[in-house]
Amino acid sequence: MEAVKDVAVLVGDLVNSTKLSFSQYVNTSASVYESATGGAVRVVTDSAFFPNYIQIQGDGFFCLFHGGQAVQRAVAAGITLKTFSEKVLVPRMEGLLSPRTPKTGFKAGVAIGTLAAKRVGRRGVNDIVSAGKPVNWAFKCAQAANRHQLIPTERAFNQIRDNDYLRWSCGCDGEGNPSSVSDLWHTTTVTKLPAEHMNCYQLDASWCDIHGDEFAAAIVAGETVRPDMPHHYSSTS
Length: 237
Prior knowledge:
This protein is an alpha+beta fold. Helix content is 34%, strand content 24%. Strands 1, 2, 3, 4, 5 and 6 form a six-stranded mixed sheet that branches. Strands 7-8 form a two-stranded antiparallel sheet.
């Protein structure tokens, strides 16, 4: 089993999937949430974030990112996932399901660390068995989030803290009108993590319809400084 350092893990988890699949309209609900997971995976893998590995686990999945901009790509992919969930998936599902169906949507977690991984399986069927803290911690972060939220560990957040494209709002109201630039993140606590690592960060905002694609492309390209911003950083509250 090979140990790989600095692997960023993104976990996507569908809220209330069990209740959804056993609700009044079982066949429709199960079909919808299976489609939801497939759609979420496509959003992450069909983008330019280039996950090195992805594994679907029931009603959720995790992606591994390694190499250049690993954490930045994982966080940007997480924002894309929650944007898809909030702006595309949930409105579509609400049109198909009963109003009594439990609310759903994706939530996400990100962690970074050393991963031990090996390929196992029979000839022609290979899968990765991964062991180590980052996968476990990313799942715990996702579990602590609400739908349409992204929670990275403090160590992961520290690697994107000074990235203008990930840290600050775009400066418009979503319709192109000027708005104040604000810090998008705030601190939160994930009690299922070890005591010394419980302090994490939370993002509720999604990509802006106008600037989102531009910001995501800049992040993947390794850019960190936005030319439109005065650099007056303040502490995340």
